[in-house]
Amino acid sequence: MSNAFAREPSWDPRRFPPAPRAPRAVQTLRMLYDPQGYGLALREQLGPVFSLRAHPYRAALVCAADLGANREVLTDHERFVGGHGAALLRPAVGAGSLICTPPPRHLRHRKLLLPPFHGERVTRWAERMRELVRAGLPDLLTGDGVAVRPWAQRLALDVILRVVFGLTDPGRVAVFRRALTAFVAMDNVAVLFLPRPLQRDLGPLSPGGRFARLRATVRDLTRTEIALRRAESGSTGGAGRVGGTAGRGGGVAGRSARPGRAARDDVLSMLLDARDEHGAGLDDEQVLDELTGLLLAGYETTATTIAWTLHLLAHHPAERDALIADLDAGSDRLLKATVRESGRLRPAVYYAIRTAARDTELAGRPVPRHAFVAALFPPVHLDRRLWPQPHAFRPARHLDADPAAYSLTPFGGGVRRCIGVPLAQLEVETVLREVLARAVPAPAGPPEPARLLSVTLVPARGARVRFHRRLRPGGR
Ligand code: HEM
């Protein structure tokens, strides 16, 4: 596997922002077990920009932890560049995925990928989404305590298989589901965080070997699907390769070259047809990398957001009952505010990552060229200067006020802001509507603390909730 950290500068306290004194292992463990508390404590102790000397970073992760520093990292694309920072994921998604693509190719790619995720287009998936949610409800509404996150992971995977991969045949869905579930499971992807020698393929029983085989299975299946889809439509993949020799500079229209093939509305079909203004499309390997990237970017994140939101509602009966009443009255104002508040208090993603393009400064602290730089979301989302009573779950705070720019960034920001926002919002809102029309979430244990799993902020025990069936279900 490739070495994601080859360019990282070595540690030198004079060239990096201040770091905690604790040993690396202690910093790593505190980050894993109390990511929100530790982030706030380090800002208090070291200021708005500090170095975290934690695994898997060999030198340090430079952390921006207040509004001004975060805004700078997310918006100054000349100094803080996206793409290289996600190199850790490269063995999983492939170098061609949007997430791993640095500028200037990033912008061209992004324009090809954006159209299927456009807000209005996404609503055409609403009915399919509702069907998938309804099919899963019996497993959630058992009357016993249920861990919502694994439930939501199954749902999120099925949504991606239908709307991104465009699979409809139940047999093929089952084959993909099995392969992808094993591939994206944390015990598999965790290999990317091991020291490099342990990532090697040392046979089927080694973590690296298992990862390589699961990856090959997923890629073979996806390749076959792409070939089938191309055969179905007679599509050849375009005259050139985006990011290759076809065309230079200028914008990419992201338009479809084959408007006649409108019957399929999934992301894969749209990607196969997408062309830039020079007629260049994505070749099969690029499409393959994009699909894998979309899967990894969209699966854990959406499932974790659903889990946190239902868990928070279960533990806040007044806010839960107000939301149910508002939905019953046919409004979605409180629904949107609730999802925002959940994304503030428990953002599924802990940070957005960039690398420094040159030796520079952030909030007056030195940052060496090629250092990994993260905009941490929780210290800003929980900053009392921005959010009164920051630790309270109060959806109503969003009703009549738009947040200050970059004070609420669960989807990141700038030119690399999440492209899946409309899809994710549709999915989270659909689950909440369907569940709350039939059941009332209640605690199935104490409120769960957040843990850090790779870059995801997950509930410690899977977000356990007990759902009580409503005597008079809401009529949605
Ligand atoms: C609630 C669910 C989701 C959350 C919280 C979330 C969050 C994020 C965050 C924080 C980033 C990094 C942004 C940055 O670097 O500034 C990101 C990037 C991205 N997300 Fe999402 N995401 C979600 C769902 C999805 C879905 C459903 C998809 C697609 C199926 C998706 C596709 C992507 C892609 C492709 C990128 C990379 C964008 C780029 O580098 O230009 N995400 N997401």
UniProtKB/TrEMBL annotation:
<comment type="similarity">
    <text>Belongs to the cytochrome P450 family.</text>
</comment>
<keyword id="KW-0349">Heme</keyword>
<dbReference type="GO" id="GO:0016705">
    <property type="term" value="F:oxidoreductase activity, acting on paired donors, with incorporation or reduction of molecular oxygen"/>
</dbReference>
<feature type="compositionally biased region" description="Gly residues">
    <location>
        <begin position="235"/>
        <end position="253"/>
    </location>
</feature>
<keyword id="KW-0560">Oxidoreductase</keyword>
<dbReference type="GO" id="GO:0004497">
    <property type="term" value="F:monooxygenase activity"/>
</dbReference>
<dbReference type="GO" id="GO:0020037">
    <property type="term" value="F:heme binding"/>
</dbReference>
<feature type="region of interest" description="Disordered">
    <location>
        <begin position="1"/>
        <end position="20"/>
    </location>
</feature>
<dbReference type="InterPro" id="IPR050121">
    <property type="entry name" value="Cytochrome_P450_monoxygenase"/>
</dbReference>
<dbReference type="InterPro" id="IPR001128">
    <property type="entry name" value="Cyt_P450"/>
</dbReference>
<dbReference type="InterPro" id="IPR017972">
    <property type="entry name" value="Cyt_P450_CS"/>
</dbReference>
<keyword id="KW-0479">Metal-binding</keyword>
<protein>
    <submittedName>
        <fullName>Putative cytochrome P450</fullName>
    </submittedName>
</protein>
<keyword id="KW-0503">Monooxygenase</keyword>
<dbReference type="Pfam" id="PF00067">
    <property type="entry name" value="p450"/>
</dbReference>
<keyword id="KW-0408">Iron</keyword>
<dbReference type="GO" id="GO:0005506">
    <property type="term" value="F:iron ion binding"/>
</dbReference>
<feature type="binding site" description="axial binding residue">
    <location>
        <position position="418"/>
    </location>
    <ligand>
        <name>heme</name>
    </ligand>
</feature>
<feature type="region of interest" description="Disordered">
    <location>
        <begin position="232"/>
        <end position="261"/>
    </location>
</feature>
<dbReference type="InterPro" id="IPR002401">
    <property type="entry name" value="Cyt_P450_E_grp-I"/>
</dbReference>
<dbReference type="InterPro" id="IPR036396">
    <property type="entry name" value="Cyt_P450_sf"/>
</dbReference>
